[in-house]
Amino acid sequence: MTATWILGGIAIGVVALAIVSLVVMYLWNWLAPRVFKLPTIQFKHALGLLILSKILFGGFGGWHGGHHGFHHGMKTEQCKTWQINHDKKDLLIK
Q1: What domain range includes position 30?
Q2: How many domains would you assign to the chain?
Q3: Considering the domain boundaries, does residue 15 fall inside one?
Q4: Residue 59 region by backbone torsions, left for phi larger than 0, else alpha for psi between -120 and 50, else beta
Q5: Is 93 within the bounds of a domain?
Q6: 24 with 50: CB under 8 angstroms?
Q7: Side-chain-side CA neighbours of residue 74 (13 Å)
Q8: 79 Cβ partners below 8 Å, 6+ apart?
């Protein structure tokens, strides 16, 4: 049963990546040549753009919904204390 779930998850991931790559390709080919006078791209170029954007910007969410910023890992009380202190510092600078 576990192998079936793993293979199913991989298959869904591959299909999702292909669909997103097609969307990127169609959007690029629709907008970029008209707006910026750039050439059209193929599917493999759209896939490469997605991979490059993942490497550079760390997008696509993930298990925990992507990046959580500075407050990731802080307890609620710590976030509130940090925000209050940060606001006071902003008032002192002005």
Answers
A1: 1-63
A2: 1
A3: yes
A4: beta
A5: no
A6: yes
A7: 13
A8: 71
Tell me the pLDDT tens digit for each residue of 64-93.
544 455 555 666 676 667 777 666 666 666
Give the pair of three-digit tokens for residue 91.
């008032």
In whole angstroms, what is the distance from residue 91 CA to residue 83 CA? 12
Cα gap 85→59, rounded to integer Å: 30
Between the alpha carbon of residue 86 and those of residues 41, 61, 73, 81, 93, the distances in Å are 46, 28, 18, 8, 11
Q: What is the pTM of this model?
A: 0.59
Cα separation, 39 vs 32, in Å, equals 7
* Domain-embedded: residue 25: yes
35-69 pLDDT tens trace: 999 999 999 999 999 999 999 998 656 555 444 55
